[in-house]
Design brief:
The protein has 449 residues and is an alpha+beta fold. The protein folds into three domains: 156 residues; 78 residues; 139 residues, Histidine kinase-like ATPase, C-terminal domain (Heat Shock Protein 90, 2-Layer Sandwich), CATH 3.30.565.10. 51% of the residues lie in helices and 18% in strands. The protein is built from eight helices and 14 strands. Strands 4-3-7-6-5 form a five-stranded antiparallel β-sheet. The chain has a five-stranded mixed β-sheet with strand order 9-11-12-14-13. A two-stranded antiparallel sheet has the order 1-2. Helix 1 packs antiparallel against helix 2, helix 4 runs parallel beside helix 8 and helix 6 packs antiparallel against helix 8. The longest helix has 52 residues.
C-alpha cells in the first residue's frame, strides 16, 4: 500500500499518462490503418477504371489493349501489384507483366455492391497477401461478361502502418515520460508547503519555536491558524495548572503550620500523633504537588535544555560545596539537548550529585550523550556502592540507608518521579570508579536550526 500522498499522486498520474497515451496510440494507429486502406482502395479503383477504359475487343473478338498505369510495380514480377481481365464465357484473358502468366484466385464468396464491384483478400503464388478489387462489365456490344481484377500487396500497407505506429509510439512515449517527470516536480512543488509546515511542527516539538511561522497557501493556512491556536490554548492550560498548583501549595501551608503550632500545647502523646500526621500530610502534599508541577511542565512541547551548560554549572557549584572532591564532566560530540524544562533537569541532576557527593571518597564522574535518540546521563562515584537489595530500597520515598549522612531520603525518589513524568527511567548500578552509578534515560531534543 502506498502510504505517502506524493507517491499516490505520482503513481496515479503516471498510470493515467500510460493509459491515456496507450489509448491515443491505439486510436491514431487504427484510424491511420483505415486511412491507408481507403487510400489504397481508391487508387486501385482508379487504376481499375483505367484498365476498363484501355481494354477492348479486336475484330476477331479477342481482348486487346495495354493500359498505362504509371506504376512500375505492375511491371515487376511477384510485386503483388497485378491486374487481369478474363472472359467469363471463354478462355480469353489479358494480364499485367508482373503476374508473369499466373492468375489471381478471387474468392467466390465475396459479395458485389450495387456497382458490380467487390473487394477481397487473396494470396498469390508466392504466399503474399493481396488486397484486390473485382468489377464485371460487358465490352462493346458483346453479350459476354468480363471480369476486371486489380490487386496490391497488403504488406506495403502494413509497412506504412508499422512505420507510423513506431514513430507514434516514440513521440507519445517521450510525451508520457515528459508528462510524468513534470508531474513529479509539480507534486513535489505542490506539497512543499505541507513539508514546510511539518518542519515547523518539528521545531515546536523540539523547542526551537513556539508557533508555526511563515506564509502558506490559502488551502493550508486555515490548518496552520488552527494549529497555532491549539498551541496557544495548550500553553494557557499549562500556565493555569502551574498557577493552581502554586495556589494550592500556599493555601495548604498555613493550615498545616497552625496544626503544628497547636500541637505544641497539647499533651505529649497527642502532640506526637499530630506532628506525625502533619509531617505525613506535608510529605504527601509535596509529593503530589511536585508531580502536578512536573506533569504540567512536561506537557508543553516547546521546552529544551542545553545539557553541557547545566552540567558544567552544577559541577562548579558542587565543587565549591565539596572542595575535597573532583567533579569531572564529559559530553559527547552530539551536544545533547534535553527535551524538557531546565528546572526539572537541574533538579534531577542536583539530587544525583548531592547523593554522589555524600558517599564519594575523592571523585565524582558525570557523563552525557545520546543513544538511539535518547539522552543518557550518568553520575558515578568512587564510594562503597550498594548491593542489589540496597538499590531496590534506595529509590523508595524517604528511604535512608545511611542514617549518619544528612538528608531526607527523598533525592532518588524525586529523580525517579521526574524522570517518569518525562517517559524516562532511572537505573542504579556499579560505577567504573567502584561506587554507585546512577543512570538517567530521558527524551532528547533535536539540534537547533
Amino acid at each position: 500500500m502506498i502510504r505517502t500522498l506524493s507517491a499516490r499522486l505520482f503513481f496515479l498520474t503516471a498510470l493515467w499518462a500510460i493509459l491515456a497515451t496507450s489509448a491515443v496510440a491505439w486510436f491514431l494507429s487504427t484510424n491511420f490503418r483505415t486511412s491507408v486502406e481507403i487510400n489504397l482502395s481508391e487508387r486501385l479503383t482508379a487504376n481499375l477504371y483505367n484498365i476498363m477504359g484501355s481494354v477492348s475487343r479486336d475484330e476477331s473478338g479477342k481482348l486487346t489493349g495495354g493500359p498505362d498505369l504509371r506504376d512500375s510495380r505492375f511491371l515487376r514480377p511477384g510485386s503483388g501489384y497485378y491486374w487481369t481481365v478474363n472472359n467469363l464465357s471463354g478462355d480469353d484473358s489479358l494480364s499485367s507483366v508482373s503476374l508473369a502468366g499466373g492468375s489471381v484466385d478471387v474468392p467466390s464468396g465475396a459479395p458485389f455492391d450495387s456497382g458490380f464491384q467487390r473487394e477481397f483478400l487473396a494470396m498469390d503464388a508466392g504466399g503474399q497477401e493481396l488486397i484486390g478489387i473485382e468489377a464485371r462489365a460487358f465490352l462493346g456490344e458483346s453479350d459476354e461478361l468480363y471480369s476486371f481484377v486489380i490487386t496490391a500487396s497488403r504488406a506495403e500497407a502494413d509497412k506504412q502502418v508499422s512505420q507510423f505506429v513506431r514513430q507514434l509510439l516514440l513521440v507519445l512515449s517521450l510525451f508520457a515520460l515528459g508528462f510524468i517527470l513534470v508531474t513529479f516536480f509539480l507534486v513535489r512543488l505542490g506539497l512543499n508547503p505541507i513539508k514546510r509546515a511539518t518542519a515547523r511542527l518539528a521545531d515546536i516539538r523540539e523547542g526551537r519555536a513556539e508557533q508555526i511561522s511563515g506564509e502558506f497557501p490559502l488551502e493550508i493556512q486555515p490548518l496552520i491558524d488552527e494549529t497555532n491556536a491549539l498551541i496557544v490554548s495548550n500553553q494557557s492550560v499549562i500556565e493555569r495548572a502551574r498557577t493552581q498548583v502554586g495556589n494550592l501549595a500556599h493555601s495548604l501551608k498555613t493550615p498545616l503550620a497552625v496544626l503544628r503550632n497547636e500541637a505544641s500545647s497539647a499533651k505529649p502523646s497527642v502532640r506526637q500523633v499530630i506532628e506525625q500526621q502533619v509531617q505525613l500530610m506535608q510529605g504527601q502534599v509535596q509529593t503530589y504537588l511536585d508531580r502536578a508541577r512536573i506533569s504540567a511542565r512536561s506537557g508543553t512541547v516547546t521546552s529544551r535544555t542545553e545539557v553541557a551548560q547545566s552540567l558544567e554549572r552544577l559541577a562548579r557549584v558542587m565543587h565549591k560545596l565539596n572542595p575535597k572532591l573532583d567533579f569531572s564532566v564529559e559530553t559527547d560530540s552530539s551536544n545533547p539537548v534535553f527535551a524538557g524544562e531546565q528546572q526539572d533537569f537541574e533538579e534531577m541532576l542536583g539530587n544525583l550529585l548531592e547523593n554522589a557527593a555524600k558517599f564519594a571518597r575523592s571523585r565524582v564522574a558525570i557523563s552525557a550523550g545520546t543513544t538511539d535518540g535518547k539522552l543518557v546521563l550518568s553520575v558515578g562515584d568512587d564510594g562503597d556502592g550498594m548491593t542489589e537489595v540496597q538499590i531496590s530500597e534506595a529509590v523508595k520515598r524517604g528511604a535512608r540507608l545511611d542514617e549518619s549522612k544528612p538528608g531526607s531520603g527523598l533525592g532518588l525518589s524525586i529523580v525517579r518521579d521526574i524522570a517518569n513524568e518525562y517517559k524516562g527511567a532511572l537505573t542504579l548500578g556499579r560505577s567504573d570508579l567502584g561506587g554507585l552509578k546512577a543512570e538517567l534515560t530521558l527524551p532528547a531534543a533535536g539540534p537547533s536550526r
